Amino acid sequence: MIRIITDTASDITAKQAEKLNVHLMPISVTFGDDPYDQLRDEDFTHFYEKQATSETMATTSLISPGEYLEVFQKAKNAGETLIVIPLSSKLSGSFQSAELAKNMAEYKDIHIIDTNQIATAQRIVVEYAACLRDEGKSAEEIVDAVLDVSGRIRLYASLDTLKFLVKGGRISKTAGFMGSMLSIKPIICIEDGAVSAAGKAKGREAANKKILSFIDGEFDPEFPVHFLYTANREAANGFIALATAEHDIKNSVVYPIGGVIGTHAGPNAVGMAWVQKK
Q1: Whole-angstrom Cα distance, residue 90 to residue 168?
Q2: What is the mean pLDDT of the chain?
Q3: Using one digit for the tens of pLDDT, what is the confidence trace for 148-192?
Q4: Which of 2, 84, 96, 230 is least buried, going by the fewest C-beta atoms within 10 A?
Q5: How many other C-beta atoms can be found within 10 angstroms of the C-beta atom of residue 56?
Q6: CA distances from 211 to 65, 134, 147, 189, 275 (A)
Q7: In 3D, which of 177, 237, 251, 189 has the Cα closest to residue 216?
Q8: pTM of the complete model
């Protein structure tokens, strides 16, 4: 039996993980000493309400080797093959925790994949892996296919502010200061597994068009285009309408971004992820 493991940076909820038959590892989100659950749909909305009123910034903690080891030992005892899909190793030490746990478990039938993706892009990979498993593919076939697809995923998003990325140490204070001074909408992307600045725009409408300007080539028809947002679905709807009309998108899904990524992105972000056609 093949068991797929991922974490909550994928923004997959407990209910969705159960439907996919995927084991979900929670990444800790806390406001000071106050832990915040990110396993239910309603937790995503409540997170941003708390973020707006809390006196302390939310922080995230990596999944420890011990947490992974507990799951790996159970799989070893059951004779299961594991495929582990954490968030990008460039953004968290959870990937390294999984590798340490594999060594401690002394169990070779564990495949840990660094897809260099997060959030909705990570979800695409996990859902694809689950689909291939259900089709009866071997672990080796799933790993090869997942690595091919993950290398073709693009993710772009516009943020309301760089404040949370700066405080979370994801970008420099200088970049954050300039963005704040200019009152711009920063555009970010995931590049080689890390958050990179892709551009900037004045106002939401210009930011939406800027994101769409990065679409180069065709969408892979095997995968829906994934739209993402933090807290503000209304803002997302405007972007989705524009993108759908300009690029004749007929197959798409929309997912909210929870606290693991929202800790750094903040509210009112919108974006999209897609798989580039070969």
Answers
A1: 14
A2: 90
A3: 999 999 999 999 877 776 665 545 444 444 445 456 888 999 999
A4: 96
A5: 10
A6: 37, 34, 25, 9, 15
A7: 189
A8: 0.92
